[in-house]
Design brief:
Radius of gyration: 51 Å
Oligomer: single chain
Strand order of the largest sheet: 8-7-6-11-10-9
Number of helices: 21
Strand content: 15-25%
Distance between the termini: 93 Å
Structural class: alpha+beta
Shape: flat
């Protein structure tokens, strides 16, 4: 009841009476309403049961003889009962027998006999009673009553109750306004007396008693208290006058102590602040700003002393002192001659205080006086008995610096000198540390790249395994299904390009840690066509996925026609552009425009520029400088920091340049500039190997990946081979052994390298032990690494990399047959 605390006592008493009266009335009316509802409902149930039983007596014969007309006539008698809206008689099997519906009603009647009993649903009451004939049930009667009349009567009772409640509350309010006065008036009199005493300090005021009850006793006690307070007030006034005189004497002394403590506290803060800084400008600015704001002074600056030239050079000027510095010609880097301006004493290490500059005849002091300044303190900053600078402080008022303030400025200059000396030492030490840090960063960068290489080996194997079924099925469909629609063939071609790009990406992951440059096979590349492929490959990222979040990204292209072909690796360039598109999408969290543009730049040599621009959040200068570093990311846990690093590596391998234009809030444009070769590039290599695809080879495939086994099995069977599959090394060796014992050996064995319990090396050794002439082909995600590093397992004739290609498999099968027919040993290169 916190809302009543601040109400006048008259209103509090009135509210209490009204609340009690209202609560009692509400409880009474609530109990009456509940009783009426329950009683009315019970009455309706009893009435409905009686009516249903009466109808049952009238219709049992009709049910017995299946006379629907008689049953309908009996139900028509319900028209005289205005509360019955519908009725239905059900036969013994629960199907409707006869129905009655009052005109104008559209009730929902059950299609079969409900359970016996009654149910209230909204404004309707439904009753179900059995119909007996000779003690046996012959059917059911269903009655539905409209309770609108019941609720109207209850509403009328509620309205009457509301009127009675309002009348009772109004009567209670009128009566309480008179009955509360004997209680409230004495208390109000005491309150008014207390207010007048508080306002006028008149302790001689008394409140007349209005009875002998508790309020009368309270009034007498209040008057006695006023008498005691009056006596004590007179004594306190006399003592207060004597105390005031004593306090006035201590106040001046306290003000002087407080001023000294404030200066000491300011000196302590300044010392701590400048001790945390290592650059001279930051130290000087902290000191000057503090003096301008807290001492305060009207002008402050720091000058560096150059002993060889005997001059002072202005190093730092306060923000509030800029205007005066312009008038005094003492802006940064301004020079002051020491001897000519009477500052020789200061640079010898002594504090100089001029209480009234206007009395000095020296040019420097006269110039300061003309600007409106009258008093000046010059505090030398000394390091190891050598003055290296001067701290100037000035005020408009003459003789405004006290001796305590001059001492404070002298002590402050010593602290500033010490902090400056430490900063100079730190700068010298920092230079040495920078050289060491550059060396450490180079080593750490190499370590990070080495760690990436170690991760790349495992990642490459898993990715190659995952995309192998996609590659096999896609190539098989494109080759064996001539009835594909142009749209389906285009989709499959796009999938094939994407799989090839992933495979190329995996093969290049080791370039982050290999010291030698990869030898690229350069072919002519149409960059406009690559851009269109990139748009299709990345459509889900820049169109579908943002639209699911309610974001719209508009893709625009501005392609120069007839762009000359460049020399490069198409899959790498496509991957670089996809990475740039993905980064541009991430930079458009609220949507925007993404533009891909191609331009030809004339010159020697000519260049083709590809730009990927967005209207997103942009980058600051520090992010723009570091964005190409490996592992640097601004995306948090969503980013790896490798996307732009891979783009940079691809551009460098192609002899291209990368330029980044960006600003916060203005978007980013990434520009790749590729040189146009003087002569068109051609794909180098040996003449294609011509062979006839063998048919009906009996092949054993061994792999622990079910998807890989199925895709390889389906593809080879589609080529007409007889394929047996084993889901592990042990199972593969056992299958080969059983086939050899039955005299039906396999033409060749295809096995994975990494498998649990028994790996591909053990499978190859077991096959060669049983049948030395049977060729063994190792199909593994580590294929390229094994061949590149010369780590080909023993007993393996050929090594293929995942994802496999049908032509590579067929070419290898032909070579395996040639190897088996010649009885030769394993191929040392172990690759087709």
């Amino acid at each position: 009841m916190t809302w009543m605390r601040h109400l006048p006592i008259q209103r509090k008493l009135t509210w209490i009476i009204l609340l009690v009266t209202s609560l009692v009335l509400l409880l009474a009316f609530g109990a009456l309403a509940i009783y009426q509802i329950v009683e009315f409902r019970n009455y309706m149930v009893r009435d409905m049961r009686a009516l249903a039983d009466m109808l049952a007596q009238s219709t049992h014969a009709a049910l017995e003889f299946q006379d629907e007309a008689v049953a309908g006539q009996v139900l028509e008698t319900l028209q005289s009962d205005l509360d019955i809206s519908a009725a239905r008689i059900f036969a013994k099997d629960g199907k409707p027998f006869a129905t009655y519906v009052r005109k104008g009603e559209q009730p929902e009647l059950p299609a079969s006999a409900p359970p016996e009993g009654h149910r209230f649903t909204g404004r309707r009451l439904a009753t179900v009673r059995p119909v007996f004939q000779g003690g046996k049930p012959v059917g059911f009667i269903y009655l539905q009553a409209d309770l609108t009349g019941l609720y109207n009567r209850l509403a009328m009772l509620g309205l009457i109750g509301l009127l009675v409640f309002i009348g009772s509350v109004l009567l209670a309010f009128v009566l309480s306004s008179f009955l509360q006065r004997p209680i409230s008036e004495p208390i109000l009199a005491l309150s008014e007396a207390a207010r007048r005493i508080t306002a006028g300090k008149d302790y001689g005021l008394r409140v007349p008693a209005q009875g002998r009850d508790e309020t009368g006793a309270l009034t007498d006690a209040f008057n006695q208290m006023l008498a005691v307070i009056g006596e004590r007030d007179s004594a306190l006034r006399a003592g207060n006058q004597a105390l005031s005189q004593e306090i006035a004497g201590h106040r001046d002394a306290e003000n002087r102590v407080q001023a000294q403590l404030a200066r000491l506290e300011m000196l302590q803060r300044l010392t701590r602040a400048i001790g945390e800084r290592q650059d001279l400008q930051s130290i000087f600015q902290v000191v000057i700003r503090t003096l301008e704001e807290r001492l305060p002074v009207d002008f402050c600056c720091v000058c560096r002393y150059e002993a060889a030239a005997d001059i002072l050079v202005v190093t730092s000027v306060g923000v509030r002192s800029q205007e005066l510095a312009m008038d005094l010609a003492m802006t940064r880097q301004a020079r002051l001659e020491v001897a000519a301006n009477g500052l020789s004493t200061c640079v010898m290490g002594q504090l100089v205080y001029e209480p009234d500059i206007s009395q000095s005849a020296l040019p420097f002091f006269q110039r300061i006086a003309e600007s409106g300044l009258r008093s000046l303190v010059a505090a030398p900053m000394v390091i190891e008995s050598r003055v290296f600078g001067v701290l100037f402080s000035a005020r408009h008022k003459a003789q405004s610096f006290t001796s305590g303030e001059c001492e404070f400025l002298r002590q402050l200059s010593e602290h500033v000198a010490l902090a400056t000396h430490q900063a100079q030492l730190h700068i010298a030490l920092q230079q040495a540390y920078d050289d060491l840090r550059q060396t450490q960063q180079a080593i750490m960068q190499q370590e990070r790249l080495r760690a990436l290489g170690q991760m790349a080996s495992g990642i490459a194997h898993d990715i190659n395994n995952a995309i192998s079924p996609v590659a096999l099925y896609t190539e098989s469909l494109l080759e064996t299904e001539p009835g594909l629609s142009p749209r389906a063939r285009d989709y499959l071609t796009t999938i094939q390009h994407a799989v090839e790009d992933v495979a190329q990406t995996v093969s290049r992951m080791r370039e982050f840690y290999r010291q030698r440059e990869q030898q690229l096979t350069l072919v002519p590349v149409d960059l406009n066509r690559v851009i269109k492929q990139v748009i299709d490959l990345s459509r889900a990222r820049w169109s579908d996925m943002p639209q699911q979040r309610g974001i719209f990204i508009k893709m625009e292209t501005d392609l120069t026609p007839d762009v000359p072909a460049i020399s490069g690796v198409e899959s790498e360039i496509r991957e670089a552009l996809v990475n740039l598109v993905f980064n541009a999408v991430d930079a458009l969290p609220e949507g925007g425009t993404l533009t891909l543009r191609s331009r030809v730049e004339t010159g020697t040599p000519a260049r083709v520029n590809i730009e990927v621009g967005d209207t997103g959040v942009g980058m600051d200068e520090d992010t723009r400088r570091r964005c190409l570093e490996p592992f640097f990311t601004t995306k948090g846990e969503r980013g790896t920091g490798l996307g732009l690093a891979m783009v940079y590596g691809i551009t460098r391998r192609h002899g291209a340049d990368i330029d980044i234009s960006s600003a916060p809030g203005r978007g980013t444009t990434m520009r790749l500039s590729f040189p146009v070769p003087a002569a068109p590039a051609t794909a180098p290599g040996a003449a294609p190997y011509v062979f006839t695809v063998p048919k009906r080879l009996r092949i054993l495939t061994v792999d622990d990946d079910p998807l890989m086994i199925k895709s390889l099995h389906d593809t080879l069977e589609a080529d007409g081979h007889i394929v047996s599959s084993a889901s592990g090394g042990r199972e593969g060796i056992e299958a080969f052994r059983k086939a050899a014992e039955k005299g039906g050996s396999f033409a060749l064995v295809i096995t994975d390298l990494g498998m649990p319990y028994v790996d591909g090396r053990q499978v190859a050794a077991a096959v060669k032990k049983i049948s030395p002439q049977t060729p063994v082909v190792m199909l593994t995600g580590w294929g390229q690494r094994l061949v590149a590093e010369g780590d080909i397992p023993a007993h393996v004739d050929f090594v293929l990399s995942k994802p496999p290609k049908l032509r590579e498999l067929r070419e290898t099968f032909v070579k395996c047959l040639e190897l088996g027919n010649s009885g030769g040993q394993s191929n040392p290169d172990a690759q087709p």
